[in-house]
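We emphasize that the prediction below concerns an isolated chain of 362 residues; any contacts that depend on oligomerization or on bound cofactors are therefore not represented. The input was used exactly as deposited, without trimming of termini.
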Amino acid sequence: MNTSNIISTTNTVDGILVQLTKMGHEQVLFCNDAKTGLKAIIAVHNTVLGPALGGTRMWMYNNEADALNDVLRLSRGMTYKNSISNLDLGGGKAVIIGNARTMKSEALFRRFGQFVNGLAGKYITAEDVGISPDDMVHVSKETNYVVGLPGKSGDPSPVTAYGVYVGMKACAKMQFGTDSLSGRTVAVQGVGHVGQYLVKHLASEGAKIFITDIHEETLKKVAEAYGASVVAPQEIYDVPMDIYAPCALGATVNDDTLARLSCSIISGAANNQLADEQKHGVAVMEKGILYAPDYAINAGGVINCFSEVSGLSLEWSHQKAGEIYQTIYQILERSKNEAIPTYQIANRMAEERIERNGGLNL
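Result of the prediction step, given as a token string:
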């Protein structure tokens, strides 16, 4: 790992440590292997409720500093996600810096698995953006601390999408008085594994669907399968819509997009949807938009992984993911009654459970 870029961005190693302390992280591991080309960062945020479970993302970041910032935010989000979902798990995440379409190899993933194994169970990994269950098979050859394997709980995307779908229906119930999505216009930004399954649910209920993605072949396939309308990536924010569903990378709810979005609900699968949690969490509320906190609504994937860790069934996973409806509705209701942004309500709910079990260093 070339740490010079990270250090130059944050001035000193002390600056990195201040960042970790501010966000409450327990441990961050920088992984480098020249032979396989592996450059990765594993972040363990909090293990009060149990071992830190969170997926591994493979992405071609602009630099190591961006990768570090992403993994710190994502791992912290996993702590809150696992807590608010009432799972006995802590929060962690990993990122591999690289092009997921051209740089994968068995050797790279096995080397990554050795780094995971070195944490001795403090961190359990799974697939995330750019990673498949088959990639996790390679990781599993070097460590037992991996879930989402074929033949077990498998790809968590269907369960994630189902949780987002029911959470979206809870938002509709609060905003429109009915949880039916029939006739509602939904703009889905990103139709990877989770986005495709979400589109399938929306199409089955008769929603009008707009989709976008950076991969044209995927767009064409999804559009033809479900009758969705395709728009360019930068035009998705301008579509007249009831619901905006961000399902790709984070920070798509920002100053620019909020000035363009016509939706009254933001409800999607992406992590870290708000570019600035405090600023944009308040802004969406002031605009009358119901925002379903990302880590609460997209918890289906980690629920699926928890079922594998605990030896529970896929049926249990779907039933548990269905409870996301009640969780989201409770957040929205408390936000309305207390006049507090939804992200703050969700954070409080997650923190309360962690504090009851030993505290959270914020």
